[in-house]
Structures are given as structure tokens and as C-alpha cells.
Amino acid sequence: MHVDTEAWVVKAEGDYIGALTLVKKRSVKVAHLTCFAAQQCAEKYLKAFLVEHNIPFSKTHILTKDLLPQCLKIDEEFSSLHLHLEFLDPYAVEFRYPGDIVTHAEAVNAVMNAKAVRKFVRGKLGIEKQRRLL
Question: Is the residue at 132 inside a domain?
Fold first, then answer.
């Protein structure tokens, strides 16, 4: 694995651990942060995959329309992530501002979707058996 890929994985794992920690609080007050951390975990894992394959990407938070198509060009199996990414997409920016309420159930669902993305991409990067080492 490239050094730059590893740096993205480390950041993704930080977001993953953050989402897991926040979801355990079961608080509506931090549900939006849980969802944001889950979205960021998925985003950074997709970017790690692209970096590993020397594919440049723009500064984007849009998973389904920007990052997923680039991953699909490398590996069509990424299509299995579409629904997970579609669920996580709105949590990049929209729910970080007043107006929309995020429930604890949504936060739990966001973490579950991030876990699925994480497991899949770690498998593609050959690190699926490593336990939080990266």
C-alpha cells in the first residue's frame, strides 16, 4: 500500500472510531456529528482507494456522483456500495446546519452504512484482516 493511501486510511479510521464512539451516546444532540463522521469515513476510504490506484480527484464530498464513478472505472464491484453511499451523501454538509433534525436511528443507520463501505474498501486494499492497525 502506498504511503499516501495509508494516510487516508488512518484519517478514515479516525472518523470511523469517532462515529462508533458518538453513536454509543444515544443522544440526538450528537446524532448529526455521528452521521457526519460516518460519511467522512466512507469518503476517505473511497479516496484511499483512488489514491492507491493513482487516480486524482477533486476536493469533493459527493460520494455517489463524484467518487463512486471513479472507483467504478477501476472495479465494477464498487456498484454494490451505491445504496450505502446514497444514504451517507446528505450528511456531508446539509445536516451540519440548523433546520434538519437527525435522529439516533439515522445515526445508527449511518454507522452501519459506513461499516459496510469500510469493510468493502479495506478488502479491496488488502487490509480487511487488520484490526484497527490503520
Answer: no
8, 47 in Cβ contact below 8 A? yes
The pTM of this model reads: 0.92
Domain count for the chain, please give it.
1
Nearest CA among 81, 87, 110 for reference residue 16: 110
49 burial level (CB within 10 Å; 0-12, 13-18, 19+): buried
pLDDT per position as a tens digit, 80-102: 999 999 999 999 976 667 778 88
pLDDT band at 131 (very low <50, low <70, confident <90, very high): low
Establish if 92 belongs to a structural domain.
yes
Determine the structural domain holding residue 47 and report its residue range. Answer: 3-124
